Amino acid sequence: MPDLVLPELGSLPAYVYDLGGLTAHTARIRSAVKGTELLYAAKANPDPNLLRAIAPHVDGFEVASGGELAHVRETVPGARIFFGGPGKTDAELAAALDLGVERVHVESPHELRRLAAVAGGRFADVLLRANLDVPVPGASLTMGGEATPFGMDPAGLSECLSVLHEAPWLRLRGVHVHLASGLAAPEMLALTESVLAWVRPWLRACALRPVELNLGGGMAVNYADPADRFDWVTYGEALAALREPEETFRVEPGRAVAAYYGWYVTRVLDVKVSHGETFAVLTGGTHHLRTPVTKGHDQPFSIVPAPGGPSPADRAPSPVPVLSGGPRLPGLPAPVPVAYDRPVTLVGQLCTPKDVFARRVRVERIAVDDLVVFSMAGAYAWNISHHDFLMHPKPEFHYLPA
Ligand SMILES: *Cc1c(COP(=O)(O)O)cnc(C)c1O
Question: Family, per the entry (predicted)?
Answer without folding.
Answer: Belongs to the Orn/Lys/Arg decarboxylase class-II family.
